[in-house]
Specification:
CATH topology of one domain: Methylamine Dehydrogenase, Chain H
InterPro entries: BNR_rpt, WD40/YVTN_repeat-like_dom_sf, Xyloglucanase_GH74
Strand order of the largest sheet: 26-30-29-28-27
Largest sheet: 5 strands, mixed
Helix content: under 10%
Protein name: BNR/Asp-box repeat protein
Strand content: 35-45%
Organism: Novosphingobium beihaiensis
Mean pLDDT: 96
Family: Belongs to the glycosyl hydrolase 74 family.
Keywords: Carbohydrate metabolism, Glycosidase, Hydrolase, Polysaccharide degradation, Signal
Amino acid sequence: MAYDWHSVRVGGGGFAPGVVFSPVEPGLAWLRTDMGGAYRWDAKAGRWLALQDGVSEGSYMGIESLAADPVDPGTVYLAAGMHWSLPSAIFRSTDYGRTWRVTPVPFRMGGNENGRGLGERLAIDPFDHDRLFFGSRHQGLWTSADAGATWHKAASFPLAGLGVPTDPRATHGGLSFVVFDPQVKGRLFVGSADPGTPPLLRSDDGGQTWHAVPGAPDDGLLPVKAAIGSDSVLTVAWCDGIGPNGITRGAVWRFDPARGAWRDVTPLKGKDAPAGGYMGVSVAASDPKTIAVSTVDRGYPVDTVWLSHDGGAHWDALYKRSVRDVSATPFLDFDGKANFGHWIAGLAIDPFDADHAAYVTGATVYATHELEQPGTLHWAPWTRGIEQTAIITLTSPTGGAHLVSGFGDIAGFRHGDLKVSPPHMHLNPFLSNTNTLDYAGRAPRMMVRSGSVHARVVPDTSLAWSADGGNSWTPLHVPAGTPHADGSPLPEQTGDAAITVSADGRTFLAETDVPRFTRDRGAHWQVAKGLPSRVRVTADKVDARRFYAIDFAKGRIVRSDDGGAHFHAVAGKGLPADLSAAHFTNREAPAPLLAEPGRAGALWLNLGGGLWHSVDFGKSWARTGETISVERYGLGKAAPGRREPALYALGAINGLRAIWRSDDGGESWVRINDDAHQWGMRIRVISGDPRRFGRVYIGTDGRGIVYGDPVNTPVKGEE
């Protein structure tokens, strides 16, 4: 079945560790992200184009490095691999990223690990552009002589690497960058960010022989990024860690290979230098003495870009004379006027226009066309077309905005217009991760949410409610629970306590250690008797008296008929005796039990990939959809003439993992995505729209929210 697919617009939102301008075609740029694939800037269209939406291997959405060909502008390479335990490959395109040749490789990558801001690790020989080198994290230096089709380890290179870690939480910096000198045939440099190794190695014969470059900083700093100018001078950024967090010291040094001499050009140094390091580096093509470097992890006074026009003798801290217009992506102003940014790992000056420069942050990409100008510098997000976020949850209510989302890192939004970046994130309280969302089926502007922060404990409360469809929120506090004997925090302190709202919007039920409900917006709470601790509750979307949950300890469905005050077992006739396949411990996992928006007592249950349906308030169940193994599923408006809701699922049929729709209660399914729309198949949540037949929302883990409509379906305004 043919579908039109689009991105829900937020604009950026995540970490893009590297931005690269083409050295041979004006107006062409490339961007790599840590979990959302690679992008190409289309100057004619004025937008970034996602290049890997057709990828089905999720690991390939984490881009470790990117290399733009120095001869053919349409040729580009990606080093793709999310984590050292997952598959890795080299991608090559000769048509600007429209199609790819994918070569699985034996060396492991970490596109979404610590150290992902290092680079670029992948480099193309400007004198023989079929020849490439890749500096790996764990397994030394690798090379290809046939445009990346085959690879072998560079035998003469003296650093073999530290080997693949055994701890899944560990990684290595490894070989942090490979840089060719475009002026001198055969000359290249390789940095090593593994402590205790020579930090910089040099070859003057194309990699046949190598020697360590003496004289570099020897106080525990690691080379993290480098750039070379037309005068062959190498500028290197140094840090005491690989980042993006935890860096406390840094430096900037320049190496002149003609003299064999280093020069310390660190913008701020000495005992009074603020904490933090340096990472992004760029040299202007028009003038090798014009260099820019970025700080990283410098919370005080602020991270910034430093600019020098005399090779580092004098520096200009650009934050002091910069302003940012974030009107296109206003969420960046969530804590006041958007500052210069953080995690500034990537930095580039356009080789065809020294006024045009860009740098990345942990939430966006900024660009200016005034870099060389005196006075105030104006920056704006350069993110049109980029949706690089992890979605935890989403819901499509029966009224109000058609979509309300819960993101990782940036909380989530009420999406009144899917084509416009929302005016603000979920605030009051601001919880960086929204873990659950629910709306009242008969009063859909009444909503509740739960969330967490990056710290172990939420500072104030992990719960909130809204009376205007998620536009504004009010904190919701539950009574202090009994402290755990082992000292671990309570679920309401961590964001593990989900929250549900009754169909009429009058009752909130919080899934704390001792589940409680309130009928007066949190002024008073009562214990929900008979409801097991720490289960996911589902509210009936029509009957306000009914709530449902799975009692995993006793293997049964429980239900409340009095608005959450008491729960009792229901027959659950037809269900297997073992319901443990629906059990989950991850607070971000979608609920296995869903209630139909338009029919009281109509429930759906995903039990280990099998779908079950009840129309009598959970008393009896029937298996449906036996041809599909479901991972994620959601409900939408029924097809014309049908009673059952449209079902949408991420699942497998005959071994094909795809997005499917069923209009007949799960008896038959049709695929609605295609090979060009897979998004790494990193999908965390899926839902139909209860007001628009055929509309499906998909929350990806790295490519934001995508939505689809059947081809040739007219789409009206979103509200």
